[in-house]
Design a protein that fits this description.
Number of strands: 0
Number of domains: 1
Radius of gyration: 20 Å
Helix content: over 70%
Largest sheet: none
Structural class: mainly alpha
Distance between the termini: 30 Å
Length: 145
């Protein structure tokens, strides 16, 4: 193999790595998955306003929805790769961001005296997750690259 062939092979490997990263990011932030996970989050948070047997049922159904979306997304993924430490830390930070956001919305709903504060905070959190998908995706692209 001469140097030109080796360079061409390396360029092809880099190009395919970029396509793999793009597909990995695209499949993790597709609109149907984001909407279904946001719906699951809303149901989980709103379930705290329900009376005793129904809160557990609603939470289990919502958790099943979220885990089902994740499992189907993983099974249908055309690209699988092990996330790096930076990617895992980014996902954990975004999860903490969602929890803190829910807490802020809940405190605000209680201070105002709104009925069903968990439902209102859950709706605001779910809508915030949907609205922040595009900036999240851009930041996640930078972390993955």
């Amino acid at each position: 193999m001469n140097p030109d062939e080796a360079r061409a092979s390396l360029d092809e490997i880099r190009r395919l790595q970029d396509r793999t990263r793009d597909e990995y990011i695209r499949q993790g932030t597709s609109r149907p998955e984001v909407l279904l996970v946001a719906l699951g989050l809303f149901i989980v948070f709103a379930s705290f306003d329900l009376p005793d047997p129904w809160d557990l049922i609603a939470m289990l159904l919502a958790d099943g929805l979220i885990f089902g979306v994740l499992a189907v997304g993983y099974a249908r993924a055309s690209v699988r790769r092990k996330p790096t430490g930076a990617e895992v830390m980014f996902i954990l930070a975004m999860s903490a961001y969602v929890i803190v956001g829910f807490g802020a919305f809940l405190i605000t709903a209680r201070m105002i005296g709104l009925p069903a504060p968990y439902t209102i905070a859950g709706a605001a959190t779910a809508l915030g997750c949907i609205a922040s998908t595009r900036p999240f995706r851009r930041a996640y692209e930078k972390v993955v690259r």
